[in-house]
Amino acid sequence: MASFLSPDPTPTRIHPHPNPDLDHFDAIPDSLLMLIFNKIGDVKALGRCAVVSRRFHSLVPQVENVVVRVDCVISDDDSTSSSSSSSTSSSDKPRSHFANLVRIVFGNFFYKPIHALGQLIGNKRLLPQSAAVNAGVDEIDGVNGGVTHHSPTQVLKNFNEIKFLRIELPSGELGIDDGVLLKWRADFGSTLDNCVILGASEVIKAVSRSCQVENLNIDDNAGNNNSNNDNGSIPESFYTNGGLKLRVVWTISSLIAASARHYLLQPIISEHKTLDSLMLTDVNGQGVLCMNREQLEELRVKPLSASSASKRTLVPALNMRLWYAPHLELPDGVVLKGATLVAIRPSEQSGGGGGKKEGSDMSWVSSAFEEPFGTAAKMLVKRRTYCLEMNSF
User: The pTM is what?
Assistant: First the structure.
């Protein structure tokens, strides 16, 4: 006899009705929220997260990975001006300072270069004392209608567990002409540990291979690709058309920019004892200052020596190794004209002459830049090396 099952008048629901009073964020563990916050990193976004709830407000200060993007640079003289005028003036100042630097170095380089450069750099501020970074945790609780500028030091004051800190300036300090390449990377402890500078008077992109071949000097190009053709002296093209003076300006101005950045990081380093890594760069990628945990601790234990002429760290006596190529063709077809690589270390580290130990370990030079400029550095270090010295300034 067949039997039939009657439907249940009150069937069981697989998914119960949602509870309107249940906050699903409460079910997320703190460890997962911290992972999300560390992936966010940006200090402004974290500041907005801090006002979502009391729980978020208590967790944001524990973030370990923080990125501060500075919107504009405001000098002390411009502190009373509007943010728009400050932003405009900040973009114009680097170029005018670079022009003054060229004029001073070209006019007085053989007379009083350090004194002149000290006067120049003493009149400008490379790292903002007031910046449009409005993401301090406590500040966001009080919403106001105006835009308030705060320094990175003020913005970071409520973060207690920072291990990895990256600060990005709105632009590089050195104004350069279009088509000119200038990049530097410096590592600091209590003073300069090393610095690598890569420059080129012109960058020819691989748009039209036929046009490039017509514009390049075949003899120079052949000599560039075969380091064995070096005759023991710097090529004549290095001295012509102001090439030597230009590279002197690149080197000195990059060192000044790096030492000024380092000097102005002191308050952040002293306040945040948990830091493992600190990077101060700019959106253009012109210059990068790096400090690891050992270097950060060294600065806390051994205070830096400040330059008496300006607000920057004193640059010690240096040994420099220089590589030059009139034309350097990269694997992707890009050509660097007048490619110059300078590796700098304090004289006390390099032993005063670039001995065997210094020559055998050049990984810090070839790995200083991202591609394609990392490849350019690796190609240049295979060429003949020229050694120079520079006094402390």
Answer: 0.72
